[in-house]
Design a protein that fits this description.
UPF0759_sf; 8 strands; alpha/beta; DUF72; 3-stranded parallel beta sheet
Length: 275
Amino acid sequence: MWTHAPWQGRFLPHPLPPGERLRSYATWCNAVEGNTTFYATPARSTVESWARQTTPDFRFVVKLPKSITHERRLTGVEEELRSFLDAIEPLGPRAHALWVQLPGSFAPTDLGTLAAFLRRLPRSHRYAVEVRHRAFFDDARSVGLLERVLAGVDAEWVPFDTTTLFQSPPTSDAERDAWTKKPRVPRRSVALTDRPIVRYLGRDAAERTIEGWRQWIGTVAEWLREGRSPTVFIHTPDNADAPMLARRFHDDVRAVLPEVDPLPEPVAADPLTLF
């Protein structure tokens, strides 16, 4: 996301060489979703550049490639998994969690496959699983079975909260596109581990996005009081204002818990001049 074109020259200085964009983004937010890894395993040299641009406490939540999760559906993936783990090794402690996003067709009947896959993963990483099959939200038995599978390896369940998006019909092209692609599932706000991860999708109108995350402020504050270390990703359909909104969410949590550390001061979007 740190290369998102609408942010260049607005939130991030422009022009910036590719090897400096993440460094600039990291002054706005202290975590990032690794979505690009879903489409292809990055070169190790690319990951080394990510590590150089961030401090050791910066958080990457890195998505496993779709060849593992969607095409092979967690079966017979030893070679692909080995290549992926080798590629991301330079992140070191920055790899906050490896994110196993499963397709909507991955159902409760597939939980045995998920359990076997998770048990084979190296314990040197933390893992987080996102499911989209409706049964995992509507059927109490399926919920319990998935929670037991994840608890067995200390893996987190990543909720993708799209309830604000689907509250009323879309009003922009980006919202209409999101309506056709994003999962329509109930909000889930249960943490299984000490590192809960939340993905929240609002609307293109900032005020509607802010209104929709009110419940999460209380939930995140409670997790912090319990000694957990949550990571929250704020999205809108067009993501045009996402860095600003992420900082606003952080400020809203600090308004409830002032002891939470502030985010770093972002770099100026415009180059400094003498005039």
